[in-house]
Amino acid sequence: LPYPPQELVSGESEEESNGVNLMEFSDEILLHILSYVPCTDLVLNVRRTCRKLATLCLDKSLTHTVVLQKDYKVNKDKVKQLMRDIGKEIYQLNMAGCYWLPSSTIDHVTRCKNLVKLNLSGCHVTSLRLSKMLSTLQHLRSLAIDVNPGFDASQLSSECKATLSRVLELKQTLYTPSYGVVPCCTSLEKLLLYFEILDRSREGFMLSGQLMVGESNVPHYQNLRVFYARLAPGYVNQEVVRLYLAVLSDRTPENLHAFLISAPGSFAETGATKNLLDSMARNVRLDALQLPKAWINGSGLLQHLKFNNPFYFSFSRCTLSGGHLIQRVINGGKDLKSLTSLNLSGCVHCLAPESLFRKAEDDIDSSILESLVVSCCNLRHLNLSAAHHHSSESIGNHLCQLLSRLKHLLSLALPVCSITDVAANVEKPPTASNLVPQPFGKKVRIGIQTYPRNLADQANQKLESSVFWALMGSLRFLETLEIIGSSFSSAMPRNEPAIRNSLPPCVRAQSVGDSEVAAISQLTYLQSLTLAQLPNILTGSGLISIGLQCQHLRTLSLANLGMMGKVVYMSALMDMLKHCKCLRDLRLEQPYLCAGAQFFQALSHCSSLQRLCIVSRSGTLQSDAVMSFMANCLEVIMCHMFMGESLTVCKTLQQSIVRSFQADRPALNVVIFPLLHEDLTEVIRDVPMRHLDEITLFKSRVAEEPPNLWW
């Protein structure tokens, strides 16, 4: 390779420079710096700058693991050259979510003869290509793939099956009823299954959960340690997962220590699943547990299950009472110091002693929460959303005060009504006149301020004694925060038409607004923030504080803030965005949102932005402003807008964006469509799962899965 003179790498000669020459750093420091550079840039660009970097860029510490996930600039040619240059040095390859790469790209993975771990989730892989590739990867022990319609296990060669027989970890996303490659993996220790099968075909035909002909082979679970299944809505997904569970019910693996099934809606218990749970209660000790709500509600299962050193529990949407939680799970605090992640989302009675005669809006029992905090003192991820957790007037026993003891928390999800000061609600009960700002009438006296002159001073005065302010001050290392209204539901469900009406916020939440949002600005290391259904947002001034103070913020999701008939926080949001240099994902859901030139001009300051999603009933957009924004923000590869514009306007804009920018942005995914159109669900099904799951669909993501479930 022709290398430039060494001094050109640092930009100027040593004699002319008053600073430090980068090349004078030790190899260890340079390797650490280079570890933050995408591998494609290291191998294809950086190593061509000088001889020293040419050597360092091929160091084993940099080539051992190659991550192409979210490297949206990579294309087929770059992958081909990368595999040609360092294929033999790669032991772990992560191509998850590279939906834009053609299926022929997978052919180049065969150069990685020493691969131990391979993640192809979200990539286009046919049965024949999978067979050819796996036949050459004799050292493979961990595999993640998608199983799409047309997959045929009979096309897998004997060499491919030999490789699969040595695989210990398998992650399989199913888009069609199938066992996939599971029957070939006879040594499995970890099995992760994601069921994304739709109930209807594109032609409108009802699908069946019966497996295809030739797929009656039985999975081998005898060595299984981890079983995880996540189901998208739909009865077909439930039918297929029962076939996977049938083998487990016959003989439960004695080494099983994590059993997790995430199923939305109603997933009824059957005789086979009951036998499975009974067998687990007799024969295994678990470290992680998640079950469908129907399997737990009204049963004594938790009383009989045995736990070893549990690190993850999810009782999402269960009717489990706080009394049962303390007695059957926490066990007096003896065994829960190991618990790092707890999901109680939608568990409306989990902080009450019993649920039989209790209303969901009744006050919580602070002693139960205190027992939880004391017993699970090492919690890093806690989800208490989708429930009414109302604190009583007892001094020192507010939910925020008790949670402030959890000093190790990294992510937290709370309902809006749980963070309000009880004293404030008692002194000034919400009335029709102070729930939301009243529209300006014709008679407004000059000199009379509708809002306080100095909003910052007002906020500071209120926050000095706020329990939520104190909580935010005590959780300085929090990285993810979700504050979601207990009755909030997104206008974009997964497989249903858009929701036109939303439920009103909880009465206790009516006072939560700008000052509480400002309190969040104390979280210096905050990376992800979700705010939904905060009714007392008057100006959005707290957002500006977050933009200034939370410089690590990467993901921002705002939904239904303030009054519904008007976007009252748009001016503050635009000021906030000017400071969000690290922001990568932005999701806005608000009726009547106007995405015009000023908004997109402010958004253009977010130089790192990659994904934008706007959901707005009766919302409007300015097409030329969108085009200008896309031209200015070169990193944007996803633009989803579901608003009130006509189908013609939406299609024209979508086509213009694709035509103008697709060539330079291979991963570009654009969906612009009327929110209330009857074909919305058909459009949604074509969105890459990576974007759909991470940003387009609204959901609480705290403690959604066990930490480090997959590499």
Automatic annotation (TrEMBL):
**Gene3D superfamilies membership:** 1.20.1280.50, Ribonuclease Inhibitor
Q: Taxonomically, which superkingdom?
A: Eukaryota
Q: Which Pfam families match?
A: F-box-like, LRR_FBXL18
Kindly list the biological process annotations in GO that this record carries: SCF-dependent proteasomal ubiquitin-dependent protein catabolic process
The residue ranges of the F-box domain are 19-66
GO CC terms in record: SCF ubiquitin ligase complex
Q: What is this protein called?
A: FXL18 protein
- What species does this protein belong to? Centropus unirufus
Q: What is the lineage of its organism?
A: Eukaryota, Metazoa, Chordata, Craniata, Vertebrata
